[in-house]
Amino acid sequence: MSALDARPHVIDFAAMVPHDPVRVFVMGDRAVADEEATPDDISRMAALVREALEAGAVGFSTGRTDNHRAADGSHTPAAVAKRAELTGIAGAFRGLGHGVLQAVSDFDMTEDRSLFDGEFDLLEAMAQAADGHPLSLSLLQRQRDSEQWRRIVARAEAANEKGLEIRLQVGARGIGILLGLDATFHPFIGFPSYKAISELPLGDRVARMRDPAFKAQVLTEKSESLAGDGSAIPPLADQLLANIDFVSMNLYRLGDDVCYEPDKSASLYAAALGAGVTPLDAVYDALLERDGRELLYFPIYNYMEHSLDVVREMLVNPLALPGLSDGGAHVGTTCDASFPTFMLTHWARDRDEGIPLGRVVQMMTADTADFMGFRDRGRVAVGLRADLNVIDHAALRLHRPRLVRDLPAGGKRLLQDVDGYRATLVAGTVVNRDGKLTGATPGRLVRGGQS
After folding, report:
1. Are the C-beta atoms of residues 70 and 232 closer than 8 Å to each other?
2. Residue 132 shares a structural domain with residue 221
3. What is the pLDDT of residues 392-406, one digit of tens each?
4. 420, part of any domain
5. Could you read off the pLDDT of 69-93 as tens digits, one per residue?
6. Would you say residue 14 lies in a domain?
7. Same domain, 31 and 54
8. What value does the mean pLDDT take over residues 402-416?
């Protein structure tokens, strides 16, 4: 943390303690997900978390989901950690005046995966072991159980009534991926004929794919398995590719006027019906548009009714915190770092049944700062930090995400430009003016529990 703090930064940032690397550091080769931590392992993990919290880390996060996989296809190290491990680590929070717990869960990662309540009981026990420190959980509508999110809300509300502070992190829109020939994923990456040309430059791939004979051959094939041993791709990918008709019902061209709440009539399935072709044929042609640079929006979660009504219901719940925005972690797969701008445009301006602008701002500033324990920011008030955005709300507009290759070894990621931010101030210093950085670096590491 001190090494990070010594580097110049444009904005402030804070550090969380992530479960997986702590487990690997303590358990070494035994940290695989199926290995149970010993009492000594748990004690050492708790000591490391306590050391980090005392140095100013703002909390501890754990992941319990089948959608996150290690490079070899196995579960991430802490994915199925037992109750003793989670409660033992949470005990590191006792006696401290700061620190939050965070967890993402499928709510079916317990020994008996059919027991939703068993998973929630486990996470609630972790919060209880932290002796009053708040916990936030992921909340989304899943395909496998479209009503599960309501049970999560009900359990969280009941926990708060008992005196446990549990908040729910809600995404601003559908949670999904962007598909494209130059992105990380698209529906044909497992097809044998496409795999044979997959290493060619984009222009050459597009030329081959526009050959009618090549297209005809691809459309006779089936995707080979993408997940499993030796692959970091989650099993969900194979499940979806096995049902391309369903995928196409929820697949949309992103377009120039980026739309994240498209009507089902705009789906590629509807386009296929209108053109009298198969859904796979329609998806193939759509990927070739814009010389192979078209991006297809595939909202996997939060969009089962082809609208964001469910998301609105989540967002207006008093326990909601705006979250799950990815922030760039999935590089060429999603571009959800635009969630805050989407909150200000779609929900607070463009949607007929939206959310008042003042409430949206409050959620993204005061509510979040209060939950995290940042007492010196989150409001415009005398004595607090002058961390401000000056926004032309009417002009606020998201552009199409774009792929850039600026990561090590030529790695690519999705970025999304936006208009309408006139200035950004950090501690009173202008760091951004009309979308361009000024070069100022007043940002610093914010250490929890320290002024």
Report:
1. yes
2. no
3. 999 999 999 999 999
4. no
5. 777 777 889 998 999 999 999 999 9
6. yes
7. yes
8. 91
67 in a structural domain = yes
Cβ count near 333 (within 10 Å):
17
| 167 shares a domain with 33 | yes
Tell me the angle at which helices 83-90 and 116-129 cross, rounded to the nearest 10 degrees. 30
Whether 267 is in a domain gets the answer yes
**Domain carrying residue 273:** 176-301
Q: In which residue are the tokens 């009900």 written?
A: 154
Domain count, the chain: 2
Are 245 and 281 in contact by the 8 Å Cβ rule? The answer is: no
Q: Are 234 and 68 in contact (CB under 8 A)?
A: yes
How high is the pLDDT of residue 75? 82
Give the pLDDT score at 325.
87
Same structural domain for residues 193 and 283? yes
Residue range 40-68: average pLDDT?
Answer: 95
Angle between helices 116-129 and 148-161 in degrees, nearest 10: 30
